[in-house]
Design a protein that fits this description.
2 domains, 3-stranded parallel sheet, about 15% strand, alpha/beta, about 140 residues
């Protein structure tokens, strides 16, 4: 399989290339303007939980019930329309180049810090094409 991505998509391709979950499935990666060494390209599981709880509360589904009744919280979230979730997720936006969702260091797909994973990854057998997009990031200037 060959994956292509630009910006955040590029760092997602990078994550697929180093993840043990996709080992043997992805053989080629084309990455433009983003890798897993960018601070916005991934987050810790603790940060993901924090953002998830904020989204649950912002959708009026009461994250404090997660431990005792996760099914009720999930049922509430499933009843929330997609537009509301899309709008509310940005309440956890913490500044430029910080996003409310990103690949998460979860112990499975990303078992360790992506920089450590890239330093130790055996990339032999992969075809990788990297580059950048001319005006990448211009929106933020």
């Amino acid at each position: 399989m060959t994956l292509f991505g630009e910006s955040a998509g590029s760092s997602s391709v990078n994550a697929q290339l180093v993840s043990p979950v996709t080992a043997g499935l992805v053989k080629r990666g084309m990455m433009q303007s983003g890798t897993m060494n960018a601070p916005w390209s991934h987050m810790t599981s603790e940060k993901a939980v924090e953002i998830g709880k904020a989204l649950i509360n912002d959708c009026n589904c009461n994250a404090s019930l997660l431990a005792e009744n996760p099914q009720a919280v999930m049922a509430c979230m499933r009843a929330v329309d997609a537009k509301t979730i899309s709008v509310q997720q940005w309440n956890s936006y913490s500044g430029i180049l910080s996003f409310p969702s990103a690949p998460t260091i979860d112990g499975a797909f990303l078992p360790d810090d992506p920089m450590k994973m890239m330093e130790t990854a055996d990339m032999r057998g992969y075809d990788i094409l990297m580059g950048n997009v001319r005006d990448e990031g211009e929106y933020f200037l």
